[in-house]
Automatic annotation (TrEMBL):
It is an enzyme of class 2 (transferase). Belongs to the class-IV pyridoxal-phosphate-dependent aminotransferase family. The keyword Calcium does not apply. Its EC number is 2.6.1.42. GO terms for biological process: isoleucine biosynthetic process; L-leucine biosynthetic process; L-valine biosynthetic process. GO terms for cellular component: cytosol. Pfam families: Aminotran_4. This is Branched-chain-amino-acid aminotransferase.
Amino acid sequence: MVDKVKKIWLEGELVDWDEARVHVLTHSLHYGLGAFEGIRAYRRSDGRTAIFRLREHIDRLLDTCKLVFTMPRFTRAQIMDACSLVVRENGMDEAYLRPLVYVGDGAMGVYAPDNPIRTMIVAWRWGTYLGKDALEQGIRTKISSWSRHHLHVGLPRAKMMGQYTNSTLAKREARMAGYDEAILLDTSGQVCEGSGENIFIVKNGRLYTPPLSLSILAGVTRDTIITLAREEGIPVSEESIIRDQLYLADEAFFTGTAAEVTPIREVDNRAIGEGKIGPITKRLQQRYFDAVKGSDDAHPEWLTFLR
Ligand code: PMP
């Protein structure tokens, strides 16, 4: 259960949590067209709160809106300010932020181009996404029987609501089979990503992650980790990975705003490396936490401090 906070930003207004309701004929509820984001604000070691890579998340939100014809009536600057406002007005020092742009009620039927496009932003407290011990002990994963959308079927650059039925089916399948998370391949068998995370493996000291030409989301955390790895002198290759390489990796981990940097200790009942967090994963996880909430201010462009 999500713990209530006081206010939700809906269409330019702060409204009480219990009043932030939508009509049952909300078009997106029926057909899934719309865009969303997941963003975290952290309390840093100096006590100040900063939203991590807000600009990049809102850019991706607007890219999604362009791809699926749901441009909001608010500008990028207005949405960014509203994200800060919602954290501040709820008196939160840490938050998960969920901006969402959806097609409101009006006409029904798949084609409803004149329905209003509505925007909302909710903030809530969200701890470790994949469970209490996930960040330290790593998680058990399963290759999904579901494929990631073929490029003719979906829009990988879009964080579009409707595409998440694919993620939900994969996640449920994995959890019901006793695993923590799913890994999805594409229809030709290339490793793509988790249900809500990008994936990396380490082999012989080199980091590998699937390229953006495959059916994967262009993760903000993925980009952060590639940057930090290069700064650490760890070579990074964005290239296709097949299932065998995953099983034989020295280390593997997921990245995501919610999942942060989560080690993968097992894939399909095969231990990855020594079956626990590996040294390169540990180093990058530490660098990540230093960047998002520690004392690493080397990338001021990544931080939006609450005023
Ligand atoms: N892939 C999918 C399918 C996701 O839902 C997410 C979470 N947004 C990611 C990857 C990771 O993206 P990010 O690092 O921007 O949160």
